[in-house]
Structures are given as C-alpha cells and as structure tokens.
Specification:
Chain A: One of its GO terms (cellular component) is proton-transporting ATP synthase complex. Chain A: F-type ATPases have 2 components, CF(1) - the catalytic core - and CF(0) - the membrane proton channel. CF(1) and CF(0) have multiple subunits. Chain A: Keywords: CF(0), Hydrogen ion transport, Ion transport, Membrane, Mitochondrion, Mitochondrion inner membrane, Transport. Chain A: This is ATP synthase subunit b. The complex is a heterodimer of chains A (249) and B (124). Chain A has 249 residues and is mainly α. Chain A has six helices and two strands; from the N terminus they run ααββαααα. Chain A is rod-shaped and about 200 Å long. Chain B has 124 residues and is an all-alpha fold. In chain B, 49% of the residues lie in helices and 0% in strands. Chain B is extended and about 65 Å long. The chains are: A mainly alpha (249), B mainly alpha (124). Chains A and B meet through helix 2 and helix 5 of A and helix 3, helix 5 and helix 6 of B.
Chain lengths: 249, 124
C-alpha cells in the first residue's frame, strides 16, 4: 500500500524537462504507423548554441562567403560597408556614438573577464538540477527493484513458514498423542487397581471362609470325639507302636 | 458548472480566433508529424529560395501569400530561439544579436533626427 502511494507521488512530482518531449498521453499517438520519422524527426534539445563571431554574427554567413572570398572576405565586407556608411555619413558619428563605443568596450571587457566563470557556475547549477531529476527517477527505479527483490525474498521466506507450520502441526499432534497415551495409561492403572481390589477382597473373603470353615469343622470334630472313642483310639495307637517296635530293633 | 478557461478565452477572442492565431496550422497532423514544432513549416514543401532558377522566380514569388506572413515571422522567431536561446549552454550570442538588432532598429526609426547632427555638409 505504501509503495502505491510512493509511486503516485512520483507521478505528480515528475518534473517537465525543457526538452521537447511528448506527454505520456500523446506517446501512444506518436508511435502509430503513419508517423513520418524521416521527414519530421523528433526535435532534440541541442547542448551548444549556434556559433557566432564577435558576439553576434552567425558563423554560417562566414561559411557562405568562404568559397568565393576566402577567410578575409566577410571582414573586408564589414570594413568596407562601415567605411561607406561613415564616409557618406549615413551612420552619423555623433556624441551618442562615442557613448556607445565606450559602453561597448566596457561590455567586451566584462564579458571576456566574467563570462567564463559565470558560464561555469550556471552550468553547474543546471547540472545539479538536471541530475537531481535524473537521480530521482533512477533512484526510484532502483528502489523499486530492491523492493521487488525484497518482496521475492519475503515470498521465499513465507514458503519456509509453511514448513514451520507443518512442524508445529506435527508437534501438536505428538503432544496430543502423548496426552492420549498418558490418559490411556492412567485409565489402565485405575481399572487395574479396581480389579486388583476386587480380586483381593474376593481372596480375603475365600480365605476367611476357608479358615472359618476349617476351624468350625475341626472344632466340631473335636467336640464330637467322645471319651470312649478317644480311649479306643489311644489303645489302637499303642498296639500299632508295639507292632512296629520289634521291626526297628 | 465549471467553464474551462480555454473556452472563455476563445469566446472573448473569436474574431481573432478565426484568423488561426493560437491554433495549430491547418496542415499539421499529430499522427504524421509528431509533437508540434513551431519552427517547422507543415504545408506543402516548395523549392527553397536558394535553389530557385531565374526563370522560375516569377512563379515562385506568385506562390507566396501575404496571409502566411505572420506564420513565417513566428517560425523565424522560433527557429532563432531553437538555435541560439534554448540550448542548454547558451552563450552571449542572443544578447549580442538582440543588442545589435535593437540598435539598428532604433537608429532606423530615429534617422530623421540623427541626420541633422551630421559633422560635414558635403560628402563624396
């Protein structure tokens, strides 16, 4: 979202260069098949102006006369013309002329002296402004590229996140399994305890029953043994012992 | 309702607008010619004056139209600007040419007064 706001602000702030350039809406029109690029080429802003001599005479006029009159031709023409104008006093050298001459001399001196430094200073300023535009544009492009790279990296990281999620899911599953098994074990132990208890109580019961029964039987038997039976049993035992004794001796 | 400033301009200047001032030339076609260049002539190309033969001179002059004069002046001005004034590293040339041009113009219109300040009465 922030990148969209940034790109919109780039659109508004984009400066209009002085060079003749079509706007973005006209670009589509300028690229149709009917566009005559040969006879009507796109105009380019020149860097250097047309050459002049002595501050105002275009170089082309000198070149035009060069084949016929050589290098000195135009100067001779100028001198001759000036002589003619002054001698016939078509150009009157009145007091304004001398004022003009003095001013001209001062101007020539100042231009020759302060011209190049001023030109260098102005060129530097222009260079700064233009490079700020170009750098802004190229900086924005570079920023976009790095943010694209970062976006791709973030996407790659997000894929790594998937693995993380799987691991976490597995972790949770393991925990669930562990809890389930723990509970299973506790259930088992509880049930076993209950069953053991039942078993123990049953055992105790049977043991008690048995003991009680044995005791009761023995006590009954003991009480049912009459004294006559007891004497007869005792006699029998003595007789058996006597029978056995000679065998031992 | 918003009225665009351009509409207002034209409603006030219709008599002038009928002369084509401030509008593109009739022969300019954006699809063919591209962005508008005020220094170019977009009509039918004629023989340049430097290549006109003496016999064709009369016909060539006959083809000139007085209504094309403002356009010609405008195109000359723009081509001078493109050559000397609008390049990135302009020099002293436009100031010099302007100075000399204005000097010549003002000398010409004041000639009647200046001629009374001649230093000599008779000349060869």
């Amino acid at each position: 979202m922030l990148s969209r706001i940034a790109s919109r602000s780039v659109q508004e702030l984009r400066p209009i260069l002085v060079a003749v350039r079509p706007t973005s809406t006209a670009a589509a029109v300028d690229k149709t098949e009917e566009r005559d690029e040969v006879n009507f080429p796109r105009r380019v802003r020149p860097i250097e102006p047309g050459k002049v001599r002595m501050g105002f005479i275009p170089e082309e006029w000198f070149q035009f006369l060069y084949p016929k009159t050589g290098v000195t031709g135009p100067y001779v023409l100028g001198v001759g013309l000036a002589t003619f104008l002054c001698s016939k006093e078509i150009y009157v050298m009145e007091h304004e002329y001398y004022t003009g001459l003095s001013i001209l001399l001062m101007m020539v001196y100042s231009v020759k002296k302060f011209g190049p430094p001023l030109a260098k200073y102005l060129d530097k300023e222009i260079e700064e402004i233009e490079s700020s535009w170009v750098n802004y544009r190229e900086g924005s492009i570079a920023n976009m590229k790095t943010s694209i790279e970062k976006e791709k990296e973030a996407q790659w990281c997000a894929q790594g996140e998937k693995m993380l999620f799987d691991a976490k899911r597995e972790n949770v599953a393991l925990q669930l399994e562990a809890a389930y098994r723990e509970r299973l074990v506790s259930v088992y132990s509880e049930v076993k305890k209950r069953l053991d208890y039942q078993l123990e109580t049953a055992n105790v019961k049977t043991r008690l029953h048995q003991k009680h029964m044995v005791d009761w039987i023995v006590s009954n038997v003991k009480s049912s043994i009459t004294p006559a039976q007891e004497a007869a049993a005792l006699k029998q035992c003595f007789a058996d012992l006597k029978a056995l004794a000679p065998k031992a001796a | 309702a918003t009225v665009s400033f351009r509409r207002l301009q034209w409603s006030v200047l219709t008599p002038v607008a009928n002369m084509g001032i401030g509008e593109y030339p009739a022969e300019y076609n954006r699809k063919v010619h591209g962005p508008y260049d005020p220094a170019r002539f977009y009509g039918k190309a004629d023989i340049p004056f430097g290549q006109v033969k003496l016999g064709q001179l009369g016909a060539w002059l006959g083809r000139r139209r007085i209504t094309g004069l403002p356009g010609a002046v405008s195109r000359a001005y723009w081509s001078w600007q493109h050559k000397y004034f609008l390049p990135k590293k302009t020099g002293f040339a436009p100031f010099g040419q302007l100075m000399v041009g204005l000097m010549a113009f003002f000398y010409a219109i004041n000639y009647g007064k200046i001629i009374h300040h001649r230093n000599h009465k008779y000349h060869w």
